[in-house]
Amino acid sequence: MKEVIAVVRINMMNQTKKALSDAGVDSYFVREAQGRGKGFANPKVLEGVDEGYEEAAAVLGEKGKLYPKRVVTVVVEDEKVDEVVQAIIAPNKTGKPGDGKIFVVPVADSIRVRTGETGEAAIV
Questions:
Q1: Which DSSP string corresponds to 11-65?
Q2: Of 3, 80, 108, 112, which is most buried, counting CB atoms within 10 Å of its CB?
Q3: Is the distance from CB of 1 to CB of 84 less than 8 angstroms?
Q4: Contact 49, 104 (CB under 8 A)
């Protein structure tokens, strides 16, 4: 089993939920989060500064600004990982900074509290 953790834009959640559903994934968690990538300035903001826009210069002063995101967590069988990852990438890939990140982590075990089922039986 693997845990797929995806950080995505808030405005892409409906498309992400639909893509997961289309991939046969109906069980997942979503959390609100704030974060930032490694880039210190959006290239468009830098262009605005070069063109003399004061608003762009003001935004540059916000180096440590955190941006609202959503964190989607899905636990799936090993053979479904690639399908889930592609389902998340499809609606979120714009080619621009801020598209998000996906992490895949091994899961040692899972237990369904209601029935006591363990392993993959607990997640399907």
A1: GGHHHHHHHHHHTT----EEEEEEE--S-SS-HHHHHHHHTT-HHHHHHHT-TT-
A2: 80
A3: no
A4: no
Q: Is 16:88 a contact under the CB 8 Å cutoff?
A: yes
Question: How far is it, in rounded angstroms, from Cα 70 to Cα 88?
Answer: 12
Give me 87's structure tokens.
């389902």
Distance, in Å, from the CA atom of 62 to the CA atom of 64, rounded to the nearest integer, reads 6
Q: Which residue has the tokens 């069988």?
A: 77
> Residue range 32-51: average pLDDT?
73
pLDDT at 11 over 90: yes
pLDDT, residue 97, reads 81
User: What is the number of other CB atoms lying within 10 angstroms of the CB of residue 28?
Assistant: 17
Q: Are 46 and 97 in contact (CB under 8 A)?
A: no
Predicted model pTM? 0.80
